Amino acid sequence: MNVRDPFGLHRNTAFDILRTTATQAAAGIRDKAIEAGATAIERSKQAVEDMSFTVPKNVPSFNNPQRLAEDYLWHHSSGGPTPRRGGGGGGGGGQHQGILGGVQDKVGEFLSDATGNSKRTLPMYKDKPYAYPPSQRLRPIYRRKRVLGFLLLFVLGVLYWTGAFEKHKERVTVPLKNLSWLKKDEKAKTKADWLKRRDRVVEAFELSWDAYERYAWGYDEFHPESKRGRQMAAKGMGWIIVDSLDTMILMNLTSRLTHAREWVSKTLTYDQDQDVNTFETTIRMMGGLLSAHYLSNEYPELAPLKDDDPGAAGEDLYLEKAKDLADRLLSAFESPSGIPYASVNLGQYKGIPAHDNMGASSTAEAATLQLEFKYLAKLTGEKLFWDKVEKVMEVLDGNNESEGLVPIFVNANDGKFHGKNIRLGSRGDSYYEYLIKQYLQTNKKEKVYEDMWYESLAAVRKHLVTYTEPSGFTIIGERESGLEGTLTPKMDHLVCFMPGTIALAATGGLTEKEARKLKTWTKRDDEDMKLARELMHTCWGMYKYMATGLAAEITYFNVANPPLTSTSPHKTPPAVFDPSEDAAWRKDFEVHPQDVHNLQRPETVESLFYMWRITGDVKYREWGWEMFKSFMNYTAVEDGGGFTSLTNANVIPPVSRDNMESFWLAETLKYMYLLFSPDDLLPLDKIVLNTEAHPLPRFDMGQLFSTGWKRKPRDAHGNAIKSEAAAPRHAFHHLSSTSPPAFHMDRDVELNNILTAKEDSITQGSVYNMMQEPSLFDGERRRRPGPRAARSAVGRWVDSFRRDPERRVTMPAAGAFAKPPSMSSQHHQLQQQQQQQGEPLMREHSRASTSGASSANGHYYDLHGGIMATANTALARELKGRHLQMIAIGGSIGTGLFVTSGKALATGGPASLLIAYCFVGVMLYCTVHALGELAVAFPVSGSFSAFSTRFLDPSWGFAMGWNYALQWLVVLPLEIIAASITIEYWNSSIPRAVFVTIFLLAIISINLFGVKGYGEAEFIFAIIKVTAVIGFILLGIVINIGGTQDEGYIGGKYWHDPGPFQNGFKGMCSVFVTAAFAFTGTELIGLAAAETANPRKSLPTAIKQVFWRITLFYVVALTLVGLLVSSENPKLLGKSSADDDAATAGAVNGNNKGDHSSSGDSSASPFVIAIESAGIAVLPSVMNSVILIAVISVGNSAVFGSSRTLAALADLGQAPRVLSYVDRRGRPLVAIVFASSLGFLAYLADLPQQADVLSWLVAISALSSIFTWGSICLAHIRFRRAWAARGRSLESLAFRSQPGVLGSWVGLGLNALVLVTQFWVGAWPVGYGDKTPAGNARSFFLQYMAVPILLIMWLGHKAWFRTKVVRVRDMDLDTGRRDFNLTVLVAQEHEEKAMWPRWKKIYRFFC
Predict the structure, then answer these.
(1) Ligand-binding site membership of 691 (annotated)
(2) What does R_g of the chain's alpha carbons equal in angstroms?
(3) How many domains in the chain?
(4) In what order do the strands lie in the sheet with 409-410?
(5) Helix or strand or coil: residue 1223?
(6) Which residues lie within the region annotated Disordered (predicted)?
(7) How much is the pLDDT for 915?
(8) Are residues 1317 and 1357 in the same domain?
(9) What is the mean pLDDT of residues 1379-1403?
(10) Active-site residue, selected from the candidate residues 105, 213, 225, 280
(11) Which residues of 1311-1348 are buried (b: 16+ CB within 10 A; e: fewer)?
(12) Is 1047 among the catalytic positions?
């Protein structure tokens, strides 16, 4: 220790002293801080206990770096001292210097409040003040962000409201990737694929509909760009939905139709206090509902729905809605004059005059209600509907307007015309349209409307038609001041309905080529067709003139002063429109700025559709396609919004209107679809289209309805005169020097003497065509019971047998034979003589016939005419799926299974029996599926011959048709004889002729009930037969295992003795032939397809199930037969006598044509033998009863098959014309009578020579079924080749054969094998060595004579007409198809099938 300096003071520096002092001070402060912290903790605990909430588990750490940073920022923003400030506080705080002073200031301030008093506690985290920085608090209000934001939004809103941004939105673009096909060059194609083009139309509809469904479902208006809807009534009128129903049906859009129908059923109501336009509501809503009702019943295969099937609860939904709407619209007719008011309040049942035009109604609107109300009257029998609209026409014509041209306004109070403005555009157009359509709707019975039409058309020529300068286009102008005023050279787009309507009136809906052959064709008709072509050309020019290719609403023309008359010489306009801007033809056209809008109107494409159907000129289709592309290019809306009308269609890009008209879906796209469709879809001679393009059927007025008024006679100037004697009734035809001198009242395309007999019938197409008329009579007639009513019922029954020319098996004027265009007029006279004598008709070459053949002798076969003839069957489509299945079973399970199988067992043994039937089952599996694919795609009449004609060779089709008809014609007497022989099982003392009479009358009676009666009978017969077979199978199992008292266990005893085979390989071949013919009749489902309500649904199921049922029945039942009956049993067919020549034909012809003396002997049935051997007394009689029913069933099928085939042949010109007679119940009556008459050959049953006669008759068509099946397989192979050559996908087929083309090759090969084995066993039959050469020759010709007969028919027809095998590139793959837009339909079905459980998928694949 240093004594001098014991404390070391002299050794420490000043810094050390300062450090020591600071350390001691810090330690003191630390102690105070610890003490203050402890106190704060205690107070915090007390505060927590007093709190009403729970302290969070994750309490922030006070010494965490993040906490320190936050405290620093908080203290800094609050204006507290910072380390760099060093204090800055008041009260001497600034005197603290150095590190120690800073620490003391900070700690003191931290633990003190604003007043300087110590708080003795630390602040909690939640107590932080959230003060704004001083800079923000000092900002003025106009600089704050929130204020500036609100101000900016306000400015943007004002700009949007004033439309500052609309100039960009109005330019329509095409953002749709699936419209890339528009850019493809189609000029390189030599032939247009119109079905693909039609699919494009369907896509456009789907896009439009889906956009409406997505953005405006249930609304009456749709604005596709703004993607919103608007209602016309509080609850909606269904303006777009109802107007589009029939379009969806035609396009087969099932899922969309289902949604629409659900809306109509659950949401649509007309019980609303709403004013609606009478005209628009009638044509769109009422017309749409009636059309949907008609199509859903007439074409049930299109967009099929279970809800509208017959018997379903919603069967008449559309009709009921239309009736409710019509009842409300009737109040519009309650005016003093009978002219309907312009509007009506639906909820109040009150008519309302127009709010403008001095309360006058538009003439067009008042006279465009007739088609709809008349059809509704026909459906409901309520005559009031009919009388109201007829009264309107009487009042309008009673104004006696000069020359048939009427002003565009009419006063509903007095019925007088208002003003003098005459035009065929707005407010005047459909008045003239409905004149000719009313005449056509009632099958040309209301002649008054034909008179009015031709009177008006003559006046149009005289006063409104003129020609433009310098090119000479034909236009229809306006007379705004009446006929005495000047002509205004202006055409609304609406006027473009006239070309098609003029052509429709001239031909009556027939093609021009067919109409020209009628005696009623006159020079006036030639001039009308010329005018129609010229006006069509002008309307197309209205489209070509516009920049977008879409016509303006109104077009003006440059004409001479004064305008030329219709008889003045003029230039011919250019056939092709030069696209250059300075083309000369453009000088003829002028569009004013206020008229450049395009509203998606349909009038031009409507006329294009009529002109194509009537003239066959493909340019009208091409014009329609070009128009459609313009719509796609310039009216498509972004983001899948559909399509919009245009405000300006004369600039590119166009200015949009943001509105989709309902007639875009109801008319424009529908006419496009029909324009690109085959001609057999909605044939024009069967229907009329209302002014909203809703198809309605033609019908006869019947006894209940009539025109009810007559026109006043007219003078030479078209003015009404007081006396009929003062002038001829039709003097108005001299108004124009170009008019013909006389008017023909017999313009009907049908014979007048036939038409006069049609009183109560209704044309095919109406769902009431099978209804009885008395339920439609008025109250006065219903109140008269007794003899009058009885006579009426008898009269109706007699009247049902009268001919209905509107109902044929095929198209009325479609003969399969034609003459080339160069044939002379003398030969044309010969045609008429041949037609009258029932000889094959020869007519001009059809426009679409590319595969016809002309021989050197001038005979010509029109292949396309034949295809068209079979495409449109007019017989009632009343067969359901259950009928089809049972028809096939009933036509196959007969004596071939019950009786003739015994001969097969005796000839080949049980093993041969089983092998042969299984082998043939495979052949039928392939054949029936090939038939199913063809029949579903083409459910045409004359099924088998039609397929052979279309895909193989017309001559082969001719031979097949006749051979198949002969087969069934001979079957009938044979089956009746077999039935009479079966009766002998119980009583042989009664002459067979008695039972022949009974069975013949029964079969004829069944067929006279029509196709539905036939179907129901076969359904019952088949159930009995199927039940019997199933019962035998169960009984056979019991007998085999020893379940009877007399028999022990049998097992496979007869397979050992006498053995599984008899007569070696030849015996098995004989069984193979017998088995093939035992399946005859399965193909009847193809023949019945043309009379099936929904072949696409019914046929596939029937085809698959029928095959399995028949195969299982045959295989299982015959397996048991082989186990229970010995092949050497003397009772079997062929074992009872040494000479079984008489049984040969029966064995060959299986179930349908079994020999009358043996195959019909039920005692020879192995089924009966098996039961008798078991000692069961009653069941043999039961089985014989089943055999009897089976025989009658096959005879019933014989009449059906032969009558339908003969009727189709007759309408094709391949059989006497009288056989085409179809009565008012849709029965081919003469064909049925003729087929039934051959049943009288059954009276040969009691003659000794009957065996020889009938055996040779059987031989004529003994191989018909084999040739039919082989032809089906070959036709399917050729069809698939043509389908692939056109680049079409198999997915577009409604039903595809499961074994495919390979299966058809297998089926064709097996059918050929049957013919080979038939030849072998026919030339060298089993036991031929024991027979004489004459006997062997007789046996051969009985089995093979059909081959030379068939060859003679085929080669004779080919030599006469020089036909050739149809080439793949010439095959018609479209005509006759009844399913459309299958791509979408199949996709929907695949989606539905994907939801099925696995067991159902497997089941539906096979069944």
Answers:
(1) yes
(2) 45
(3) 5
(4) 361-362, 409-410, 417-418
(5) strand
(6) 73-99, 817-854
(7) 85
(8) yes
(9) 60
(10) 280
(11) beebbebbeebbeebbebeebeeeebebbbebbbbbbe
(12) no
